[in-house]
């Protein structure tokens, strides 16, 4: 396992972590200030400053991307299928312009939450089937841009409203079906927050192998968790044995960034530099 | 599948559903008033009125039990092992006195939450191992009382603090290892709240078969869920296709009660009779 204790060269900052403290350009400046080499920006943050300015800021600071958040929300009723397809194609175009190595897919839960206004459904099996079809369709477009798609299994707590792919096994089953030749076009993004509870996840990480491990995200699971979406913890403040998961992905050959993504009403109230400094310190000690 | 639309003879009320509206004796009176034939009481509610009075009230009203909640919280540090064992033996004694058909096991998460004061750990694999050893030990005592144990896999959102067995598959793996002969001493309690998200659960219900399906619980998953523990929904108010799960367990031969267990800060504020009437109406229409 790589030694992270001496520096933070393998730290990437998912820009949602400080999204309330500044816009994407200010976050990029903060990264430059703190010697952070990579980010994973969100589409809404890019849109807020404009794609052109975001691309220039990334280039001028020499930042790498560890991913682009996010494609997906594939589930909808029939009237919104074209909207879903076009939205995801634009996502590919943006990721390409920014130089992202992959697009992180949050696949969507039930249609009424994934694409508001869609007819309500309780059929999660149908949602899963729709997700798989839509990933297959998106892959065709993404291949043209040479952009790998990384399915992010989300914690089962989000099955209804955010993602109906909730285990690494399910995500890898989809990879096997849609890219049996392991061409590199499809893989997974694993976030310890979503997978730490899964008794099968270490075996699944081994199954994934280096070519399907496209991104590795860290934060921590707090007990108690006061808000299902926005009470994620700073690494070290919760109950996840983070190093055990980094060990597992690196044992398969993963050598990319360890990306910090923290949705937290608590950390969003703190000054950007304090959050970034804490991320660096925890990256060196507990990741 | 049994027709529930004409009456509520297969409705059991888990007494936690109205635990803030009255004590166990008052809940038993309400069940008698509303023609409810079965309950699943909690240990703290029994203790609050005294075991002897609870036993008499159950007998006098002719109520059946669909289970006894709950045994478990097996994970602890070494200094609390005896406490855990003795606590669970008392649970068996109480269940026997009350005439329960099984004990529902909430197995515990990490030791510091399962048995407060235990040394803190992030080792969920060790917790799982400890749970399995402790179930094996409890089974010996429970066999003497002819009391089956029903492992309840809890939603992965509770993996840290309540139960580190989070899927039907994991629970059934434990059953296979500890009771390979399917003697009836060990099975599962399946609550739609905890399992609805699991893409493998229908196959696992088939694997369980009638002899391991010891209890079936219903409520609903609300979107958004405002509190991880106490914002469960009344059946029909959320996103779970409840009938699909009842169909699946009944297809295996399950013919017991459909037990309503709702932890809800919302429903706890309503009058007991209103909650019970709503339970009956939803049991007949959406369960």
Automatic annotation (TrEMBL), chains A, B:
Q: Which domain of life is it from?
A: Bacteria
Which keywords does this Swiss-Prot/TrEMBL entry list?
Answer: Isomerase
MF-aspect GO terms: isomerase activity
Coiled-coil region(s)? none
User: Does the entry feature the keyword Isomerase, yes or no?
Assistant: yes
Q: Which Pfam families does this chain map to?
A: AP_endonuc_2
Xylose isomerase-like TIM barrel domain: from which residue to which, for each copy? 28-273
**Database matches in PANTHER family:** HYDROXYPYRUVATE ISOMERASE, XYLOSE ISOMERASE
This chain's protein is named Sugar phosphate isomerase/epimerase
- According to its UniProt entry, this protein's organism is Bradyrhizobium erythrophlei
Biological classification of the source: Bacteria, Pseudomonadati, Pseudomonadota, Alphaproteobacteria, Hyphomicrobiales
